[in-house]
């Protein structure tokens, strides 16, 4: 990177570059977030009191963009003729390294980056072609990569010349809309590795500001062109933007940057540009990088609730909030927002209950501050259903569970046991509510018709209660379930509005019924005559309670044959029937149950994958982290038995590690906060060493006898965790 000596040079640019600010005055205030809307919902049900305009606000997202935006193309100015090739440049670099004479390389860099026209002259694949489509940026990516890879290995005066040239380009007087050559230059400059150095941040900030201020049509081109950047370079640009935001929020050396009051636009500009890359990533299938690579963990340390309340009160107005760009907020930070939001709702409802009691001259008691659920073990589902139905107004209060006829206070263990037992009973195949698919190892809604879908509402409420009470559930739903759960993310007031309906694809079906999805995929790729060889119509059949029933996928579907021409429509309608229409009433009840507890604008911040992690935890195991956070009772961490235990567990396969976690906690997944949030405890069991280990899943506790050697411990532990179905209740 740039050495210390470069900083004086760049600080000298500060006065010079502030003129860029003046050139922005004519453009107007471009610092407000780009507004891309979600479906408008007039009012939300069961939501906490919010500012008047918040119900009209719409979520900021640039995950999707229109397929093509029509915009007039400004005339492209003629480009200088530059004939240097990759090989020519590499030859110049080798000669300069050998001789110490960098004149040719210096001339190349200073000329190439002196203006946007010169950047295009050097890096455009064909200067005579306009490249005015989203499909091809016309950038010679290989040449760009070679030039940037070499840049950081050149003398400081060469690197400074590049930055001077970029300043010249940014100071250019703009008249009228940007040309596609300008957009190409922006796309190339964003990949400059020099912007990893904080001494270049003033220049970098102005580059980001200009890109953020472009029109929606220009952003559309940049998004599609960014998709073509290699994964490595794409990730580098994203990391650079995240680092810029982090260091502006928490600078290691505050004196390096202008005062925050003079550059309040830095972070909004960088976040908007990051949103373009997030949009490009979302448009790719599969995504270029993981959505978690856009998380900025630095935001975990700011006042998130202030950000959230600003977003609630001001929506997508001129006031910037990170909540307008939820892709940048980590799941851990989103969990904090949801929990604090739920706590505030719980306190508000509990306070109202107290006021009501006092106003009626009744004696208040502590129980009114909680959602008290009393159930009999023998009638677990029916009692739970009755309790939650009777206490709808209390669902946002802190949950406390009592098993009738059993002594004991609920300090968290009884609540977790209630969830575990209830989920296990409801999801049992014999119960008939959900079908377990062995191939995909997940549950899906039974399509059987019935008169009452209240039990599906109970399951939804259970999931909502689990999120609000920080309980991880051992539920195996496919990804599209959580996509449907956020369709829409806020419950509409009009009960005639369809809920839980989302766009589904063959990929979604693969996650549930892989064999059927594979068959439909083969139908789409079949090269013969589909109508004659398959002899199918737009009618499908399902077995319900031993009776085969037929359903038309479209009007008169039984009379419409499936052909080579209409097979795509057939597959799409079939998938939509299986995942949306055939289970609509079941899923709608489930949806309303979940949102009866989780009615919060915080849900607008979540991706479907993040809802799954909040409900079920993360599948990523780190047993070393678990070892560091484990508590002991009757043992010391230096005891021989404990050392044997961790030697064995760390040597387990991933499958056995998951079995151990499931055995000890009731789930093989990890809470959002990581292994430390499990509060895992190993207690000494005073029983014979002939006994197997015992687990108290309600307390995440493993009772371990003091086995004499590692071999015996490993043998007993594997037997225990591999045969752990059912509960041994005293």
Automatic annotation (TrEMBL):
The active site is at 698 (glycyl thioester intermediate). It is an enzyme of class 2 (transferase). GO terms for biological process: protein polyubiquitination. The gene is Hectd2. It catalyses: S-ubiquitinyl-[E2 ubiquitin-conjugating enzyme]-L-cysteine + [acceptor protein]-L-lysine = [E2 ubiquitin-conjugating enzyme]-L-cysteine + N(6)-ubiquitinyl-[acceptor protein]-L-lysine. GO terms for molecular function: ligase activity; ubiquitin protein ligase activity. It comes from the Eukaryota. Pathway: Protein modification; protein ubiquitination. This is Probable E3 ubiquitin-protein ligase HECTD2. Keywords: Ligase, Phosphoprotein, Transferase, Ubl conjugation pathway. It comes from Nicator chloris. Its EC number is 2.3.2.26. Residues 391-730 form the HECT domain. E3 ubiquitin-protein ligase which accepts ubiquitin from an E2 ubiquitin-conjugating enzyme in the form of a thioester and then directly transfers the ubiquitin to targeted substrates. Signal peptide: none annotated. CDD domains: HECTc.
């Amino acid at each position: 990177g740039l050495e210390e000596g470069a900083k004086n040079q760049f600080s000298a640019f500060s006065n010079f570059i502030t003129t860029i600010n003046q050139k922005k005055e004519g453009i107007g205030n471009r610092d407000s977030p780009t507004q891309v809307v979600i479906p408008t919902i007039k009012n939300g049900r069961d939501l906490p009191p919010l500012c008047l305009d918040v119900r009209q606000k719409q979520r900021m997202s640039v995950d999707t963009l229109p397929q093509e935006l029509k915009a007039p193309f400004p005339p492209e100015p003629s480009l200088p003729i530059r004939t240097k090739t990759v090989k020519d440049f590499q030859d110049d670099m080798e000669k300069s390294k050998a001789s110490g004479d960098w004149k040719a390389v210096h001339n190349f860099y200073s000329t190439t980056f002196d203006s946007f026209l010169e950047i295009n002259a050097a890096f455009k694949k064909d200067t005579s072609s306009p490249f005015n489509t989203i499909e091809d940026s016309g950038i010679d990516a290989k040449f760009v990569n070679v030039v940037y890879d070499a840049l950081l290995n050149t003398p400081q005066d060469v690197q400074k010349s590049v930055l001077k040239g970029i300043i010249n380009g940014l100071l250019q007087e703009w008249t009228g809309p940007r040309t596609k050559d300008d957009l190409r230059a922006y796309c190339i400059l964003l990949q400059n590795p020099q912007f990893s150095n904080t001494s270049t941040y003033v220049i970098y900030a102005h580059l980001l500001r200009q890109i953020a201020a472009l029109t929606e049509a220009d952003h559309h081109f940049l998004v599609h062109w960014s998709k073509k950047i290699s994964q490595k370079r794409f990730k580098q640009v994203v990391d650079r933007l995240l680092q810029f935001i982090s260091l502006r929020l928490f600078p290691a050396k505050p004196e390096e940057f202008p005062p925050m009051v003079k550059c309040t636009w830095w972070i909004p500009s960088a976040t908007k540009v990051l949103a373009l890359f997030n949009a490009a990533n979302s448009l790719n299938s599969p995504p270029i990088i993981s959505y978690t690579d856009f998380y900025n963990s630095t935001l975990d340390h700011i006042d998130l609730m202030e950000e959230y309340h600003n977003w609630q009160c001001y929506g997508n107005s001129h006031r910037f909030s990170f909540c307008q760009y939820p892709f940048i907020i980590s799941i851990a930070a989103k969990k904090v927002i949801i929990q604090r939001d739920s706590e505030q709702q719980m306190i508000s409802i509990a306070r109202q209950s107290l006021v009501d009691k006092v106003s009626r001259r009744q004696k208040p008691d502590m129980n009114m501050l909680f959602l008290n659920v009393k159930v009999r073990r023998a009638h677990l589902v029916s009692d739970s259903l009755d309790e939650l139905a009777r206490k709808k107004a209390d669902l946002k209060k802190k949950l406390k569970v009592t098993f009738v006829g059993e002594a004991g206070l609920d300090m968290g263990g009884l609540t977790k046991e209630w969830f575990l037992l209830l989920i296990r009973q409801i999801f049992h195949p014999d119960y008939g509510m959900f079908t377990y698919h062995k191939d995909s190892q997940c549950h899906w809604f039974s399509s059987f018709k019935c008169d009452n879908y209240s039990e599906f509402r109970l399951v939804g409420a259970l999931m909502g209660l689990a999120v609000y009470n920080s309980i991880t559930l051992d539920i195996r739903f496919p990804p599209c379930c959580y996509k449907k759960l956020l369709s829409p993310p806020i419950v509409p007031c009009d009960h005639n509005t369809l809920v839980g309906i989302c766009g589904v694809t063959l990929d979604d079906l693969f996650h549930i019924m892989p064999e059927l999805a594979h068959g439909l995929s083969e139908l789409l790729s079949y090269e013969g005559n589909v109508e004659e060889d398959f002899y199918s119509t737009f009618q499908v059949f399902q077995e319900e309670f031993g009776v085969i029933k037929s359903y038309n996928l479209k009007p008169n579907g039984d009379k419409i044959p499936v052909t080579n021409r209409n097979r795509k429509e057939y597959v799409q309608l079939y998938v939509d029937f299986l995942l949306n229409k055939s289970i609509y009433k079941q899923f709608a009840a489930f949806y309303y149950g979940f949102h009866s507890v989780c009615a919060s604008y915080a849900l607008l911040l979540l991706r479907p994958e993040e809802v799954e992690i909040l409900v079920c935890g993360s599948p990523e195991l780190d047993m070393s982290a678990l070892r560091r956070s484990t508590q002991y009772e009757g043992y010391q961490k230096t005891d021989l038995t404990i050392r044997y235990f961790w030697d064995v567990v760390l040597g387990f396969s991933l499958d056995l590690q998951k079995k151990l976690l499931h055995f000890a906690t009731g789930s093989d997944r990890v809470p959002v906060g990581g292994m430390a949030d499990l509060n895992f405890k190993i207690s000494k069991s005073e029983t014979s060493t002939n006994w197997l280990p015992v687990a108290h899943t309600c307390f995440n506790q493993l009772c371990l006898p003091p086995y004499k050697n590692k071999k015996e411990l490993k043998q007993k532990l594997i037997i225990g965790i591999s045969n752990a179905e059912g509960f041994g209740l005293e």
